[in-house]
Structure formats: structure tokens, C-alpha cells
Design brief:
- This protein is an alpha+beta fold.
- It has one domain: Aminopeptidase (3-Layer(aba) Sandwich).
- Helix content is 36%, strand content 25%.
- It has eleven helices and eight strands.
- An eight-stranded mixed beta sheet has the order 1-2-3-4-5-6-8-7.
- A hairpin with a 2-residue loop joins strand 4 and strand 5.
- Helix 4 packs across helix 6.
- The radius of gyration is 16 Å and the shape is globular.
- The structure holds coenzyme A (COA).
- The site of coenzyme A has 21 residues, from strand 5, helix 10 and helix 11.
- Coenzyme A (COA) binds next to strand 5, helix 10 and helix 11.
Amino acid sequence: MNALSKDFLADVLPSQAFSQAEHASVGALGPQPLIRTGRLTLRRPEARDAGAIAAALANYRVSKMLTQVPQPYHLEDAEDWLGWLADAAKGAWVFAITLGGVRAILSPVAEAANSNVADRLIGVVAIERRASHGRDGWHIGYWLEESQWGKGIMTEAVNAAVARFFAAHMGEPLYSAVIPDNPASLRLQGKLGFDITGVAEAYCVARAEMVRLITTELTFGGYMPT
Ligand SMILES: CC(C)(COP(=O)(O)OP(=O)(O)OC[C@H]1O[C@@H](n2cnc3c(N)ncnc32)[C@H](O)[C@@H]1OP(=O)(O)O)[C@@H](O)C(=O)NCCC(=O)NCCS
């Protein structure tokens, strides 16, 4: 398996890969829900998503904001990651973001006309348990293909995933980390109530250099649902 692809989940989330043994030892979230919001459906990624993932992550403007995604990024990288995910990431919630939300379902004509578009993966949001940068717990990460930026889609997706997380883990914080030259992600997290907790460093594979990370944390008490 391509080691960089294997590390990708940790970067959808920002940090180190974790082994299956580590994963098993720190617990699990329980079964991953299917989540629908007004505009989106969040479902488990499937093998058919490989092309969309590869196209989105081949874009340096996306990969440079993640630490573990190689550049260039090939279809095989996406296929490796999906294979690894199906096999290993049982305890994590990894959502493919698609545009088939509740509104589309309530408009059957529109949904039928757009069924291929509606089910196409446009991004990923994931929550997994691991230890990184001195924080042992649940970590959230996400990316969206560039053509969909600026429409509030990731705020809607992260909000939905966070709400489901806190429904079961109210007493536990959610950790994240953002490269400082990513104001959109910092703004998104600020809107939802994430606090900045410090700084860290990591190697960014796409940039081929060390980068600083702003470490962040969301608690149930600080969470501001949108
Ligand atoms: C970060 C990312 C997920 C944002 O997705 P998105 O759907 O465009 O985000 P949203 O539209 O929900 O929210 C972004 C917010 O940032 C704001 N924003 C966007 N660009 C900005 C900029 N250059 N400076 C300040 N704010 C900015 C938007 O206006 C919006 O805030 P608003 O709702 O108050 O207007 C997307 O750009 C992405 O995937 N980037 C590459 C990968 C990545 O950065 N992943 C996260 C790693 S921590």
C-alpha cells in the first residue's frame, strides 16, 4: 500500500497516521450514521468515489492545506486510501459529502434529473480517535473540491458531523489543526465555536516543507450550531 495514501485519513484530519492496533485500543464512535442536511448527504465513501477524490486532491490549492496528501495525487492514491479505509478505519466516522440533501429528496423531479450529480463525492469530513500534538482524543478534519468553495457547504457538513458527535460524546472535546495561511478554515471553525489552543509543527507533504499548525478545540459548551 502507498504509505502516503494510508496516511491520508490522518490528514483529512491533520496529523500522523495511526495503526489498527492503536485504533482498537482507544475506542470507537459506534456505527457511522447516514446524515442528511438541507443541501447535503453525508455517507460512507465507496470505491466508486475514487475518481472524484483523485480529481479534487490533485489540486494543489486543496492539498497544500492538508499535511499528508502527496502532490501529484493519482487515482491509485485514492484507490489505496479507499481500500485501506474499508479495511481498517472501523472506529472512525469518514463521510463522503454529496449534494443530495433533504431539499433534493423533497423535490423528486429535481432529484431524478440530478441523481448523478447529487451522489457525486465533493469532499470529505472525518472524525477519528488518535493522539497527535499532545492531544489524545477525537480529531476532525475535512476538505472540499475547489469548485464548491464559498457556498457554506463545509460549514453545513462540519456542523452536521459535530452535532452527531456531541449527541454521543458530549463530555469530550473535538480537536483540529489549521495551517495559518488558511483563513477559510479558521473562519469556518470560528463560526462553529472552536477555540485556538496553541501552535504545533508538522511536515506538509504537498509543500515539501515543515509548516506551523494552529491547534484548535471545540467543546460541547462552546459549540455554536449553525
Ligand atoms: C477550508 C474549506 C473546507 C472551506 O470550505 P467552504 O465550503 O468554502 O467553507 P464555507 O463556505 O462553509 O465557510 C468558509 C468561511 O470562510 C470565509 N472565507 C473564505 N475565504 C476567506 C478568506 N480568504 N479570508 C477570510 N475568510 C474567508 C467565507 O466567507 C466563509 O465565512 P462566512 O460564512 O462568514 O462568509 C475549503 O476551502 C477547502 O477544502 N480547502 C482546502 C482543504 C482545507 O483547507 N481543509 C481544511 C484543513 S484544516
